[in-house]
Amino acid sequence: MSRYEAVIGLEVHAQLLTKTKAFCACSTAFGAPPNTQVCPTCLGLPGALPVLNGKAVELAVRAAIALNCTVLRESIFARKNYFYPDLPKGYQISQYDRPYSEHGHLDIAVSAKGSEAAKRVGITRAHMEEDAGKNMHDKGDVSIVDLNRSGTALVEIVSEPDLRSADEAAEYLKTLREILVFIGVNDGNLEEGSFRCDANVSIRPVGQEKLGTRAELKNINSFKFVREAINYEIARQEGVLEAGGKVVQETRGWDERAGKTFSMRSKEEAQDYRYFPEPDLPPLVLSEAFVESVRATMPELPQARRERFVRDHGQTPYAAQVLTTHPEVARFYEEAAALHGDFVKIGNFVQAEVLRDVHTQGLSATFTVTPSQVAELLQLVDKGDISGKQAKEVYAKLVNTKKAAAEIVKELGMQQVTDPAAIDEVCKRMIDANPKQAEAYRAGKVAMLGYFVGLAMKETKGSANPQMVNEALKRLLC
User: Could you tell me how far CA 443 lies from the centroid of its own chain?
Assistant: First the structure.
């Protein structure tokens, strides 16, 4: 057991899903050729004035509501002054002492003594700001700057230092990302950098209230790397203190290849940025009517949807978790279940068959079948037209087609055998061919019934009605 306790706070930068940037009409589409989505405003050219994107405000308020923050009626944009090659204006438009929201919380699941418990993590504030550009380092000494991302609307979500381990930090990020995706605020794409975080990590002796000196780990873009970077940094700081050294406040990067953090620069304080109110933007005033209109259109949060699936649909907590891995997966399941009527049966089939072929990208998902095809297929099983085993074969033929399940069944000549005489005939043959097993069943070894059911189903290539086979065997084996 370590003598030290980790104290971790996270700052998440989430790109708002607007078609244009925060203060100009340039596109935010990802993947365009470098420096093709720029204009005088996001380039910071003299005389260009910012105009606030109304959609960005709506999405930012939606995020604040989902995170239980207080939405303030008036907030101020500020200039955060610093020089960096990807910041063409020499300052970033952000919010400082008067953000648009504050004092929220997020509940996460954590492991506690072998079981799962809920932990509440405080959120200091969520504020709006614009993104910087992107430095791209080629081989050798060549670096170029792509300003397509410069000016993109962000919401920065700052947690309280309530996290105590790398696992808790990763769980917080997963939960936060899931919420932002489900409410349509952010696409959750870590690879493209639209969801990234900085981690403030410090350690202190167990039982001490005073916080230790923190290091800020910059722009980590995967849950795996967040966990690895924090664990490394905790161990590094412990090593420094155990050797009699002193942890210094600094900004550190994460080298994923080396598996270690590295010093980038001494940590700036707020005064180093020379914050002052943005003179070209008036205060952001949010009416109560506007905030309530956003609240009224809030989508269902993922945890609430899981609880509803368990309470109203009869799903297990595990199944509810799987069926809410993505908002489009949840939509597909609910649509198919509404068409069929049996939520548990549809849920099981979606988990076992449909999810194998689902591809998600941001807020979109690609399915190889439609909800109506799945509902119709299971209705054929319910009516006894095909067996459950045959349904899997039919499903394989439905993939990437517009055909109805009944059409596939007809093409395959696949009709479930429900003729009592035909089923009796097959069962009699199986009993006559296996007299020892038949005697064992009659002697009380009831498990042998499953043996005969398997033989009959194999003989009919899965086409016999299983219930009728069971009933026939019980009658004929007496």
Answer: 56
